[in-house]
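lol ok so funny story. i was supposed to be doing the assay writeup but got distracted and ended up predicting the structure for this chain instead. priorities right. anyway since i did it might as well share w the group, maybe its usefull for someone
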Amino acid sequence: MDQFVSLLSGKKVLDVGCASGRESKYLFDKDLNVTGCDIAEEFIKLSNINCPGGKFFVSDMRKLGSSKETFDGLWVSASFLHIPKIDAEHTLKGFNKLLNENGILYLSIMEGSFDDLRLNKLHPDWPERHFSDYLEEELTQLLKNSGFSILSCEHSKTDWGPTFLHFFCKK
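and the output, tada:
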């Protein structure tokens, strides 16, 4: 997260798929103007509790491109991986529209080629949800097609199995 903060040229950030607001709070504590969105209303309620200085709203990230508001950075941590691949490029182009010139996109996903419903390994009691895993080359091409320059892609193996890809991109 600190690398993301260091790349920003401004203070206005959108946490896309903010869940309970834990990462929004971290960004807020770094003196950033944080807005967060999630498709689950329950998560937005928790975000308001966990990060009272932030601004939160319910939204499907696939529809964010129609927003008039723009940001210096988008933090998209382990949330884009729930978007079906058929909607990926449209969603990424919407992210591009949300960013100010030279804005920064952080995006993390699981490495692989899966695109379907599955259980969450960390929360097996949760219902099945859609997961889309990507190979580095596959997501790199989608990001470039959506108007992003790739600054870096880092691989990190989790202790519970999958490898995550962490993309830092610039509009």
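Helices lie at 2-7, 22-29, 41-50, 88-98, 136-145. The chain has a mean pLDDT of 96.
back to the writeup now i swear
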